[in-house]
Design goal:
Distance between the termini: 10 Å
Shape: globular
Order of helices and strands: HEHEHEH
Strand order of the largest sheet: 1-2-3
Number of helices: 4
Structural class: alpha/beta
Number of strands: 3
Length: about 110
């Protein structure tokens, strides 16, 4: 995808944030997070993501998150609220709707 890249990570720490920081140097980006396999998130990890997203919300076109468990969905809503992301962050429980949003963004990026 022009101006885009797919990242996969399973551990947290600084590595995902460093990769995303590098990507932001190229301009605003849309972040798609497929967390459908996750069954839980620690408070520390969700707090890290909340701080990072809040700090960079002006450089994000959107944050799209697919959740697979009610607990992860609640955690994502807390991140959205405490990070003051509002409509910038969309939370999906339907994989088809998430894939559709991704397809729309990929098409937009090709133009």
């Amino acid at each position: 995808m022009p101006g885009g890249r797919s990242l996969r990570f399973w551990a947290c720490g600084a590595a995902p944030f460093e990769e995303l920081e590098n990507d932001l140097r190229g301009g605003a980006l849309s972040l798609f997070v497929d967390a459908k396999q996750s069954r839980g998130v620690t408070i520390e990890v969700s707090a890290e993501w909340c701080r990072w997203l809040a700090r960079h919300r002006n450089a994000l076109r959107g944050v799209y998150m697919l959740t697979g468990s009610p607990f992860v969905q609640i955690t994502a809503k807390l991140v959205r609220n405490f990070g003051e992301l509002g409509d910038l962050m969309r939370i999906y429980t339907d994989p088809e709707a998430f894939e559709q949003a991704l397809a729309v963004e990929l098409e937009r990026a090709r133009r």
